Amino acid sequence: MDEPGDFHVEEKGGAKALVLTGDWTAVDMGAANDRLAKALAGTRGVAVDVTGVNRCDTSGAYEILRAIGQSAEPGPFSATPRVNRLLELVHHATKAEPTPEHPRRSFFDLFDRMGHGVVDLAINVFDTLVFNGHLLIAVGRAVRNPRKIRWAAVMSLAERAGLDAIPIVATTTFFIGAVVGLLGANMLRQFGAQVFAVELIGIAVLREFNVLITALLLAGRSASAFAAEIGAMKMNQEIDAMRVLGVDPFDALVFPRFLALLLTIPLLVFVATVAGLVGGMVVALTVLGLEPAAFFQRLVDNVGAVHFWVGMSKAPVMAVVIAGIGCRQGLEVGGDVESLGRRVTAAVVHAIFAAILIDAVFALIYMELNI
Question: Does the domain at residues 6-95 carry the CATH identifier 3.30.750.24?
Fold first, then answer.
């Protein structure tokens, strides 16, 4: 049965002592906490005995500690081990520093953030120009003396960053070509011109989707890998060790990745082109009943090779940008894991954005050239 919290005065060893009894909980202590605080206010050396307390929760422990703290000079204190542990826990909690309040942002903070953003943008542009200049020097050294190119590293990186991506590139572009063909056939059927879906598939795959899908996949796959590899080396101070040994990190790390992606992305774009056309051909066969021979004949007669070379011309630029972004973000990694995660994320986001922007710029250029 619950017993309300209470206390009384006893004589112990010739001195007065406050003996607490009952249940000192939020529900049962009632007004006993206020009476205890008044009894101990300004007292000196009054003993407090809590051994008679049956039940006690954090609210009761807090009120007991608050009452004892109001005495001018706390006296002897006794409690059971269970209640003593609870009192110690509440005491440490009350002594903890309060959670700092975040200052409210004013309207002028907006301009402050805008100013910092402009300064950071200028610094990033300057660092990018420095990186590009250093990369051009490394390329010039490689052209002047090809024997210094680390071909073993280039071939290994070409396999990991390029050739291993063939399955995912082929699968993705196959379904992209199939979706374009299906949408084109359904839309053009309303006008009785569903056979022109072949031209739609050919132009869309040859000019845009082959190189764009390849670039986006490499942005998520290779750019992140480059940033993570170089960033991990920088965290372990391996790049600093290279500089101490007289090895330029751009010659040993950046240029091989740059060359590997430059060599493999045209092959990936070609594979993406074939896979996209095959996906469109499957849809043309199943939906339109158009035989593969007739499908490719219409491509040759009405689409031609110009669109293929337009798409392939974008591949080297995509390779340079994706490899450059991944390596630059890797070199910007600091000494902690959080910095590595931020830079890897930035490498993927920047590479995807750059790939889409470059494709749009090429589309505008070729439209002005009427190609």
Answer: yes
DSSP states of 159-173 as a string?
A: HHHTGGGHHHHHHHH
Alpha helix positions (H), the chain: 32-40, 58-69, 81-95, 107-144, 151-161, 166-189, 197-203, 210-218, 224-235, 238-244, 249, 255-283, 292-298, 306-331, 337-368
Q: What is the pTM for the complete model shown?
A: 0.68
CA nearest to 318, candidates 106, 169, 197: 169
Q: Would you say the C-alpha torsion 131, 135, 136, 141 has a positive or negative sign? A: positive
Q: pLDDT tens across 25-62, in order?
A: 877 777 877 777 777 777 776 777 777 788 888 887 88
| 255-283 helix and 107-144 helix, angle to the nearest 10 degrees | 100
- The structural domains of the chain, with segments of one domain joined by +, span 6-95, 135-368
What's the rounded Cα separation, in Å, for the pair 282 and 213?
20
User: Which residues, listed in sequence order, are joined to residue 73 by a DSSP beta bridge?
Assistant: 44
